[in-house]
């Protein structure tokens, strides 16, 4: 049995073959291909979201998303800051918009589009430095850039005069403005011509005439400025004491105490009506000018993104 066991062991070793030493086999290799690393994910873009928020009228949120885009994509910071400035303008935060745009100024100054945006922001600021809105001397500009430079100059020369209610200066500047082909600027010019025409035909009431009418007939000055209800009330307020005073004087003579008291009350109301009619005419004129100025601002805000 021992001989048979040794024979079987020898046969098994012969079939398995000689063992190969580790220094002959070498290191083990894998047949699997190496897995390539996934490409880096680009940083997200927030400009599309900012544009959508702008269309929805959420200007503060639009500003935040535009600035966020510039933070995650520094190479597009200029575009992001311009969008933020636009949303700040639409939100009425003109000083913040101006400050944002000044950060874009490089060695060669602002580009044409940023320069226009700066001019537009300064349009609504008093004491703004319009020198920044002038095109740099000797700078060649493409057709698109030239249009924005022209819009910036128009903003400061024509629109600023009209917005500050210097209608005569605005009309003079507009009259000296060169002819331009149909387009954005031509539309602005036509609209400003209509604005200036309306400014020339603003309804005006003379304070002196209003006071004189109230001297002649109490309440007539108030009716002259369009306040018919106040006119009727003033007539009654002055006429009632005067009528009762006349009755007392007719009954008790000029020594009537009641007559003098009522006459004094009526006289005070009479003087108050004269003064109130004159002040009412001043307020009426101011309201007409303020209404026109509100419409001008609404029109000019619509020019934020030509």
How would you explain this protein's 3D organization?
- The chain is mainly alpha-helical and 306 residues long.
- It folds into three domains: 43-104, Serine Threonine Protein Phosphatase 5, Tetratricopeptide repeat, CATH 1.25.40; 111-201; 207-297.
- It is 69% helix and 0% strand.
- It contains 14 helices and no strands.
- Helix 3 runs antiparallel to helix 4 (59-72) and helix 13 (228-252) runs antiparallel to helix 14.
- It is elongated and about 110 Å long.
- The protein starts with a helix and ends in a 5-residue tail after the last helix.
Short note summarizing the structure:
By secondary structure, the protein is mainly alpha-helical. The protein has 14 helices and no strands.
Show the helix and strand layout.
Blueprint: H1 2-16, H2 22-25, H3 47-55, H4 59-72, H5 77-90, H6 94-102, H7 112-123, H8 143-163, H9 167-176, H10 184-200, H11 207-216, H12 220-224, H13 228-252, H14 257-301
Structural class based on helices, strands and sheet pairing: mainly alpha
How large a portion of the residues is in β-strands, by DSSP E?
A: under 5%
Query: What can be said about the biggest beta sheet?
Result: none
- The overall pLDDT average reads 81
Number of strands: 0
Order of helices and strands: HHHHHHHHHHHHHH
Enumerate how many helices there are, as a single number.
14
* Regions with little confidence, pLDDT below 50 for 5+ residues: none
Percent in helix: 55-70%
The CA-CA distance between the termini, in Å, is 107 Å
Number of domains: 3
């Amino acid at each position: 049995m021992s001989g048979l066991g040794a024979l079987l062991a020898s046969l098994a070793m012969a079939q398995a073959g000689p063992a190969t030493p580790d220094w002959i086999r070498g290191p083990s290799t894998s047949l699997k291909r190496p897995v390539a690393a996934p490409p880096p994910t680009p940083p997200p873009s927030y400009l599309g979201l900012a544009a959508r928020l702008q269309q929805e009228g959420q200007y503060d949120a639009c500003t935040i998303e535009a600035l966020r885009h510039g933070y995650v994509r520094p190479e597009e910071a200029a575009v992001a800051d311009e969008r933020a400035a636009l949303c700040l303008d639409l939100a009425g935060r003109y000083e913040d918009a101006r400050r944002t745009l000044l950060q874009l100024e490089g060695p060669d100054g602002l580009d044409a589009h940023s320069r226009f945006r700066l001019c537009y922001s300064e349009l609504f600021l008093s004491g703004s430095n319009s020198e920044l809105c002038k095109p740099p001397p000797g700078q060649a500009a493409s057709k698109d850039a030239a249009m924005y430079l022209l819009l910036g100059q128009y903003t400061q020369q024509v629109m600023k005069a009209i917005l500050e209610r210097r209608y005569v200066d605005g009309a003079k500047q507009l009259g000296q403005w060169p002819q331009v082909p149909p387009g954005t600027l031509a539309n602005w010019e036509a609209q400003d011509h209509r604005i200036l025409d309306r400014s020339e035909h603003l309804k005006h009431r003379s304070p002196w005439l209003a006071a004189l009418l109230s001297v002649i007939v109490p309440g007539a000055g108030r009716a002259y400025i369009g306040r018919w209800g106040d006119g009727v009330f003033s007539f009654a307020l002055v006429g009632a004491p005067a009528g009762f005073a006349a009755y007392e004087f007719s009954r008790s003579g000029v020594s009537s105490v009641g007559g003098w008291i009522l006459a004094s009350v009526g006289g005070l109301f009479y003087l108050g009506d004269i003064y109130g009619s004159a002040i009412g005419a001043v307020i009426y004129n101011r309201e007409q000018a303020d209404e026109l100025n509100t419409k001008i601002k609404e029109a000019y805000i619509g020019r934020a993104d030509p």
